[in-house]
């Protein structure tokens, strides 16, 4: 049986630099090639499930926001990912077209969709009378399979690894090891979303250095439902610093994902030290 989806459209436009986004169709059309960062938050209607996909060029699913709990309450789910685009590529949100799935919003609003264009590669320093090349470092990855914890008596904090690579500018992220290594000192933005496995809790930490915990997502609900948790932050990094995600390894914990790519991890350099201290 074919599954139908409908595009999510918007009635309020806050920013539209370049006018590449059409709120009436909900579609962003790329003009300038490069790596674009997209984030979206969607509200879940009471007594309904939630399933919204970020798609590229039709039906290429890049990431998903999902909540399978049909309870009385309203809530929101968020997701973010960086995608490499060519001219005329399109990106938009799709809602599962089924009476079990509904998105909720009001004048609040609960539903938002944002995208950032490629960073500027260079700028002109009038004081030095020279064109300064900016260092670039960015990655965005996803998992298409779950990671189940198991009590093995181990104390090593192995990084969560990934099998889908959207963007890896500079090659500073190793999806096999799950580690990002800083090559350009400065302020970096990191965001991650993880899916909760049925009948398991979820506890994922953003780690640096030798195991310093910088941010956490946590949900100890052991019910059958699948949902997601998101977290983001800015970190000041030095050359050689490492950043990775650690999922609790006890058998009561797990991270859920599938081809819908519930679990994602992104990061990029925002302000290199050369700009901060100039």
From TrEMBL:
Cellular component GO terms held in the UniProt record: extracellular space
Domain of life assignment: Eukaryota
Subcellular location: Secreted
Keywords: Secreted, Signal
Residue span(s) of domain C1q: 1-124, 132-276
Keyword Nucleotide-binding in record: no
Protein known as: Si:ch211-219a15.3
Species annotation: Sinocyclocheilus anshuiensis
Taxonomic classification: Eukaryota, Metazoa, Chordata, Craniata, Vertebrata
């Amino acid at each position: 049986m074919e599954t139908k989806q409908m595009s999510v459209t918007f009635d309020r436009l806050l920013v539209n630099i370049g006018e590449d986004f059409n709120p009436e169709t909900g579609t962003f059309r790329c003009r300038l090639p490069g790596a674009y960062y997209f984030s979206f938050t969607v509200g879940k209607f009471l007594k309904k499930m939630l399933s919204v996909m970020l798609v590229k060029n039709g039906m290429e699913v890049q990431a998903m926001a999902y909540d399978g709990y049909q309870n009385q309450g309203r809530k929101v789910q968020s997701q973010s990912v960086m995608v490499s685009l060519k001219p005329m590529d399109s990106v938009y949100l799709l809602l599962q077209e089924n009476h079990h799935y509904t998105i909720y919003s009001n004048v609040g609003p609960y539903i938002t969709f944002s995208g950032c264009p490629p960073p500027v590669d260079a700028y002109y320093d009038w004081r030095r009378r020279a064109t300064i090349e900016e260092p670039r470092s960015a990655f965005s990855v996803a998992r298409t399979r779950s990671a189940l914890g198991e009590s093995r008596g181990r104390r090593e904090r192995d990084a969560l690894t990934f099998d889908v690579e959207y963007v890896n500018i500079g090659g500073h992220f190793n999806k096999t090891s799950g580690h990002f290594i800083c090559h350009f000192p400065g302020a970096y933005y990191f965001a991650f979303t993880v899916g909760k496995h049925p009948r398991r809790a979820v506890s994922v930490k953003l780690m640096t250095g030798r195991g310093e915990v910088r941010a956490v997502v946590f949900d100890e609900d052991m019910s059958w439902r699948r949902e997601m948790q998101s977290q983001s932050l800015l970190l000041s990094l030095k050359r050689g610093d490492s950043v990775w995600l650690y999922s609790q390894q006890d058998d009561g914990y797990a991270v859920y994902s599938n081809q819908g790519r519930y679990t994602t991890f992104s990061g990029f350099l925002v302000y290199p030290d050369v700009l901060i201290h100039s």
